[in-house]
């Protein structure tokens, strides 16, 4: 499995090829840009299936801003898709000092049973 990334305007998304996904910067993309991000997440799931990995780790500690379209994309195209994969567990590493994360990410628990949220 190989590394993949997206370098967007003000943000970066990296997948290490082993089950770790990191989103950093300020993600305030337009809806059409989110289509490319959704495609990227599909490729991440393909890579995870290929590697027979049982855990997906999402690190958003360095993601200082995420607009509502971004929240929807992460919920639908990442968390809900992960929930559909039998046996897959997900961890999200968050920053306790980033307001949108504190207010929004705990609600992701409603979308996936095998989800662990860790604030640092």
From TrEMBL:
Record domain STAS: where: 34-74
Membrane-spanning parts: none
PROSITE patterns attached to this UniProt entry: STAS (PS50801)
SUPFAM superfamilies in alphabetical order: SpoIIaa-like
InterPro entries documented for this protein: STAS_dom (IPR002645), STAS_dom_sf (IPR036513)
Stated name of the protein: STAS domain-containing protein
Organism, scientific name: Desulfonema ishimotonii
Phylogenetic classification of the source organism: Bacteria, Pseudomonadati, Thermodesulfobacteriota, Desulfobacteria, Desulfobacterales
